[in-house]
Amino acid sequence: MATQTLRTFVAYVEDRPGVLNRISSLFRRRNYNIVSLNVGRTHEVGVSRMTFRVEANEDSARRIEANLYKLVNVLSVEDITDKPSVSRDLALIKVAVGPQKRAEVLQLCEVFRARAVDVGPDTLIVEITGTQDKIDGLVNILQPFGVAEMVQTGALAMTRGPEGEAAKSVHQPPILRGVTAA
Amino acid sequence: MAASVTNLSPNETRPETRRLTGSQIIWDTLVNQGVEVVFGYPGGAIMPAYDALPQYPGLRHILVRHEQGAAHMADGFARASGSVGVCVATSGPGATNLVTGIANAQMDSIPIVCITGQVASTLIGSDAFQETDITGITLPITKHNFLVSRTEDIMPTLRQAFYIASSGRPGPVLVDITKDAQNASCDYAFDSTPVRLSGYRPDRYPVPEEFEQALELIRKAKRPVIFCGHGVIKANAMSLLLEFVHKTNIPVALTLLGLGGFPATHERSLGMMGMHGEAWVNTAIQEADLIIALGMRFDDRVTGNLKTYAPNAKKIHVELDPAEVNKNVKVDAPLLGDVREILRTLMPHVERLNIDEWIAHIETLKGDSAVRDIQELPDDGRLFAAHVIHDLWRQTQGKALVVTDVGQHQMWEAQYYKHDHPRKLITSGGLGTMGFALPAAMGARFACPGDEVWVVAGDGGFQMTACELATCAQENIKVNIAIINNGYLGMVRQWQQFFYGGRYVATPIKSPDFVKLAEAHGLKGIRVTKRSEVRDAVAQANQNAETTIVDFRVEQEDSVYPMVPAGADLHNMIRRPIPEGQGHNPIFETGED
Questions:
Q1: By the CB < 8 Å criterion, does A100 face chain B?
Q2: pLDDT tens, position by position, B276-316
């Protein structure tokens, strides 16, 4: 067995009730280890786009793709792990910090290109986008001030350059040939 | 309606638009899909549909005794006919009773459409009487499912259901229709244009390089074996496989569900492989240098221990479902697509292989067992299940449509009934569903009205769905039933004997008097205790106008041999012991010792 690595997939799915359930049920049933999963609307009505990350080797990654294609509501899937891409998480962090140390926290946030989106008498909400590493870095720095709450999305990813394979085949299903085309 | 006909060419006629209720639309759509028989059971949430059923006299409804039976009947019909089987149930318990039958169809890739009633859409989520989330429950065991709550969605959804069930790798599709959708009306005209689903692409084709790679492996092979799986039968590739074998001379091993995909009596047929495969087949696989797997999925019952499986063989995997490739066995040359199309493409490029040595070697593996015939062995007064199956094969000239249950009798059937034709063995492979045989045979009866249909079941499994005898009686469905009655849950008892120190926990089973059970239903029953009575009983059963049970009282503690223990190496088989001081065992020994 080849080694397991973190793999990133992009999938276009029909925006209907129950589709996310079908996908998560598939992952559960086939014992795929999901690291993060994100779904949201696209610029097109009726089409949602997912980004998800799983621990998998190359072969099981191919079968994840193949199994997803077996779901009738899945329009297209692309494994973008080895493609140049941009990937972002979004996190909101509520720091328990009053007026005395507020300036210090804001200064640190600047280093991370995070910004304050809400200020209360004893708290501050910081918004940060970036990779998991960057978010972890900020959280570590803020920890001594007291992190009261934190919420974060899974990764959103998009390939660099021209329109991606998954996006291209949403409306024009490719004639599937060969194994690698999955 | 003439006014609306504007953009049609003179030869086209648009079907007349009528105002129908959802209930009428359900049946009208089924009729338009070519359905002639549905298996079902009424109940509250499906009553509007049943109320409209008499308006469709072309549809025969079979009233089952338990919804599991309805699903198995649809399944049996689908397997025997190659088309889609349909079953109907109400919401809640009616729907959940279908679940085993649906899972069975899913595991064996059988196209069935299950229609269930659902509580009114306004009540969904309120824990209403007989409400159950059947689309949620069946999500992992269907190819796809739908919840329909609008009347105008019924016809398009059912059309999609038939299309999804029968295309690509087939499977069960469930359509859950709310009671208010059945009751309401809408304008309706059956749409006969091809179904198109944007996210569903069932067809695929190999690339030329993949063909080249496979052909290269075939040309170089010295010890090749072809595997004939269920996909060969599903793709109707039997005659192409036969031609392929005639051209190349490569021997063929079969999976349980592949039996009949290549003639069992053909000289290049090796028989069934795997856990209860003949010794020579499994040995040949372990020694092979090339496996050409056609429409099969390297199930654990076929491979045994994957680490030591066919260690010398390159593998070509012809398979429609990409998710099956490299799942269990690492493949050297995958060919993704329809078995028939791929065989057709390969055909002109293959020629007779120089493998006489290999063929001769397999013949020696067979030893003298292949030419011995249990028919010729002396009758010592004991009746063995293998005798029953062998004599059933003889008496029916190998032409019966046999539907088996699950267990020892199923394996004996696979070993001793030589199927030369496809779709004449119907058996629950993947799920191993006891109770499958009787209802599946009843469904198959409608697909093959001219066939002699035989149920082969154990005394345990038969009792799981024996209630359907009443359906046979009420609906005048004629099948023949061979109960291989050994007083045990035989396969479990066999495992207890081999692997659990002979502790027969919960396996001795007491049965009703099956002859009287048949008679209580107004059917016929025959009891057989001697080998000499088998053929007459088989003939008599078939002559009877009504369904007939033949209760074969067989040797109680016989086991299926050879046996590869679960997870063991394929060549490590438990063989039939020969008791000391006895010249031979009264049972045909399968393979060289």
A1: no
A2: 998 899 999 999 999 999 999 999 999 999 999 999 999 99
Q: What share of chain B is helix, strand, coil (3-state, %, to 5)?
A: 40, 15, 45
Q: What is the pLDDT of residues A4-17, one digit of tens each?
A: 899 999 999 999 98
| Sequence ranges of the domains in chain A | 5-83, 87-156
Structure tokens at B390: 């062998």
Q: How far apart are CA B575 and CA B590, in angstroms?
A: 9
- What CATH number should be reported for the domain whose range is A87-156? 3.30.70.1150
CA distances from B411 to B302, B559, B568 (A): 13, 10, 18
Check residue A70 and report its DSSP letter.
Answer: T
What value does the mean pLDDT take over residues B74-103? 98
**A5-83 and A87-156: identical CATH topology:** yes
Q: What number is the ipTM of this complex? A: 0.89
Across B527-559, b (16+ Cβ under 10 Å) vs e yields bbeebebbeebbeebbeeebbbbbbbbbeeebb
- pTM of the predicted model as reported, rounded to 2 decimal places: 0.93
Nearest CB to A59: which of B140, B197, B326?
A: B326
Residue B190 in tokens: 């059956």
pLDDT band at B2 (very low <50, low <70, confident <90, very high): very low
Question: CB distance A22–B139 less than 8 Å?
Answer: yes
Domain A5-83 class?
alpha beta
Decide: helix, strand or coil at residue B50. Answer: helix
Instruction: Determine which helix (DSSP H) or strand (DSSP E) holds A50, and give its type and residue range.
Output: strand A47-56
Structural domains in chain B plus CATH codes: 15-188 (3.40.50.970), 208-366 (3.40.50.1220), 385-553 (3.40.50.970)
Q: Say yes or no for a CB contact (<8 Å) between A178 and B323.
A: no
Q: φ and ψ at B333, to 5 degrees?
A: -135, 95
Q: Residues 15..74 of A with a Cβ closer than 8 Å to B: which?
A: 18, 21-22, 25-26, 29, 59, 62-63, 66-67, 69-74
Between A2-11, B45-54, B62-71, B408-417, the lowest mean confidence (pLDDT) is in A2-11
For residue B144, list chain A residues with Cβ-Cβ distance below 8 A.
71-72
Residue B464 C-beta-side C-alpha neighbours within 13 Å = 21
pLDDT above 80: residue B379: no
Q: Indicate the residue type of B87.
A: C
For residue A10, give how far its alpha carbon lies from the nearest alpha carbon of chain B (Å).
15
Reported residue count of chain B is: 593
Residues contacting B82, CB < 8 A, separation 6+: B234, B236, B423
Distance from CA of B321 to the nearest CA of A (A): 8
Over the stretch A19-60, which tens digit does the pLDDT of each residue have?
A: 999 999 999 999 888 999 999 999 999 999 999 999 998 888
Is the CB of residue B299 less than 8 Å from the CB of residue B565? no
Query: Is A21 in contact with B326 (Cβ distance < 8 A)?
Result: no
Q: Is the pLDDT of residue A175 over 70?
A: no
Q: How many CB atoms lie within 10 A of CB B251?
A: 24
Question: Å from B447 to nearest chain A CA?
Answer: 29
Establish if A2 touches chain B: CB-CB under 8 angstroms. no
Specify whether the CB–CB gap between B71 and B41 falls below 8 A: no
Q: What is the pLDDT of residue B204?
A: 84
Question: Of A72, A170, A177, which is closest to B206 when you measure between CB atoms?
Answer: A177
Query: In whole angstroms, how far apart are CA B515 and each of B80, B452, B481, B539?
Result: 28, 21, 11, 17
How many residues are there in chain A? Answer: 182
Q: How far is A169 from chain B (nearest CA, A)?
A: 10
The candidate with the shortest Cα–Cα distance to B95, out of B27, B141, B154, is B141
Q: Are B116 and B94 in contact (CB under 8 A)?
A: yes
User: Which amino acid is present at B486?
Assistant: N
User: Helix, strand, coil % (nearest 5) of chain A?
Assistant: 30, 40, 30
